[in-house]
Amino acid sequence: MFHASLFRVFTSFILLGLAFVPHTHAHYDSSVWLPPESEPFVPVTDAHRAAWDRVVEDCLPLNTRAALSARCMTSLGEYFPNEPLWSYNYVFVYDNRYGWQPLYHDECSQRRWYTPADFLDPNIPYWRDIFDDQIEQRQELFLRVVNDSACQELTGILPKKQGMHDDLAEQCAAREMYQYAAYLSACFDATQRLTLLQTIAAKPDSEGRALNLFELSFHKLDENVADEALRAAAKRYMEKSYLHASWVASHCHEHGLVLRPEVTTPAYTSPSGQSFDSYTTTDEKIPWRGLKGMQASELRTSTHEFIMKLAMKSGDDWAIRGGSLGRTIVGDLGEELMQRYPLLIHRTLGDSNVYGGGFGVDFTNEERARHRAKAYLLLVEAAGEEFARREYNPETFAKQIQYIEDGGLLKAPLTRAELQEKHRERLRQQHSDKELQEVEGD
User: Fold this and answer.
1) φ/ψ (deg, to 5) at 33
2) How many Å apart are CA 94 and CA 100, to the nearest integer?
3) Distance between CA 39 and CA 373 in Å, rounded?
4) Where does residue 321 rank: exposed (0-12), middle (13-18), buried (19+ CB within 10 A)?
5) What is the pLDDT of residue 302?
6) Are 313 and 325 contacting, i.e. CB atoms less than 8 angstroms apart?
7) How far is 175 from 178, CA to CA, in rounded Å?
8) Residue segments in the chain with a per-residue pLDDT below the cut of 70
9) What pLDDT does residue 403 have?
10) Which of 14, 19, 266, 299 has its Cβ near the most Cβ atoms within 10 Å?
11) Cα distances (Å, whole numbers) of residue 263 to 130, 177, 260, 279, 300
């Protein structure tokens, strides 16, 4: 049995030490006991370790059926502000049948998966940049920006202004809009996570107690993981995720949200039979618990997508590196995006998940492999071969590497004009197919 102080040192080591587990080795195989955690990938200072030790002292053991103590919240407020924002994009729970599974997210357009390559540039956002003493002022600034006609021209399905517009970064408050978008995304993540983790997920056990999802994951870990150190590390990961969600949610409930004015959602009935009236936003602040179901989701999404696109098209570095890079925004931002962020874009286009970003529609497997090869070579140039091999296995695309080294050309993402033409062609084809069906039916 550990002495209390040794136990704190041990849990601090295994939890913070998870930061150095290579991301590419993590997967859902139940034989791998450590969750595919979103690692910080930044050096951990002695002061930061000490802050975590205080969290362990003040917040554990964790009771998910009771509010966290004031002392615990104080310790969380000393620890989490100095954690990288991009390290908490998913929360995993353990299932003995499927292993580690991510909780469902009603996602905003934020990137979710990060690797060490994203941290080669140390200019990254921390949680102190999102939950600072400027949230109220940022919400007021958002209301000014959202009504600025020049900023509005950057957004929309068919924005009037194409490409990046650094000249509007100050007028459209690009950095502050990214920070507010990250606030909205984090708040909805946290409230969803807490709701899911606290939901009863199993029938009453032999003692008559029904377990919530968090407790059930702990129970399954006890049943299936014999290695004490690995089991402890997995539980600390879950505890840290729960504490982070609780800390974020506390700030969200304190500051509320301001949404894009004059956006209306229709009335609807939830699956449980509860009815919600149509709702039109104003410039007034709304408490987080003030909206339900689809109202919260649709209004939040409308606001978030507006300001994220605005921040990205204004050229904000954090927004571009932290936003979801789908084919529409990549096509809209144009060649300038590739010139400024070649490694990021080649990694995005080469994503082996053919559905990632929607680029599987435009690229063959061979073309995507060539982009992975280019990304690998850029990583070797930037950080060395050993680092690059932690991201990619070059043996799987040796032919494509040779193609790049021989001067082979890479297929570029479709431009906005090309995407629009493809859309028009698809509509023409659908119209033609409908006419054909009507003729055949006569």
Assistant:
1) -85, -25
2) 5
3) 24
4) buried
5) 84
6) no
7) 5
8) 1-40, 105-107, 157-158, 262-284, 287-296, 352-358, 360, 433-442
9) 98
10) 299
11) 25, 18, 6, 8, 10
Burial class (CB in 10 A: 0-12, 13-18, 19+), 64: middle
Which own/partner contact pairs does 135-140 have at CB distance under 8 Å and 24+ positions apart? 135/183, 135/251, 135/255, 136/255, 138/176, 138/179, 138/180, 138/183, 139/180, 139/255, 139/257, 139/258, 139/285, 140/258
Alpha helices in 134-173 (DSSP H): 135-146, 149-152
Record the pTM: 0.85
Q: Which two tokens stand for residue 169?
A: 């970064």
CB atoms within 10 A of CB 27: 10
Query: In 229-355, where do the E strands start and end?
Result: 264-265, 268-269, 275-276, 279-280
Question: CB 418: neighbour CB atoms within 10 A?
Answer: 13
| DSSP class of 114 | -
Beta bridge partners of 212: 200
Look up residue 128 and give its two tokens.
Answer: 């102190």
**pLDDT at site 268:** 55
Q: State CA 244 to chain mean position distance.
A: 14
* Number of C-beta neighbours around residue 249 at 10 A: 20
Closest by CA position to 291, among listed 196, 199, 184 = 184
Strand partners, 241: none
What's the confidence (pLDDT) of residue 23?
Answer: 33
pLDDT for residue 143: 92
Question: What pLDDT is recorded for position 108?
Answer: 80
Residue pLDDT, tens place only, 349-400: 998 664 456 676 789 999 999 999 999 999 999 999 999 999 999 999 999 9
Task: Report the relative pairing of strands 279-280 and 92-95 from DSSP bridges.
Answer: unpaired
**Which tokens hold the place of 400?**
């494509």
Give me the pLDDT at residue 273, please. 63
- The answer to whether the peptide bond before residue 394 is cis (omega within 30 degrees of 0) is no
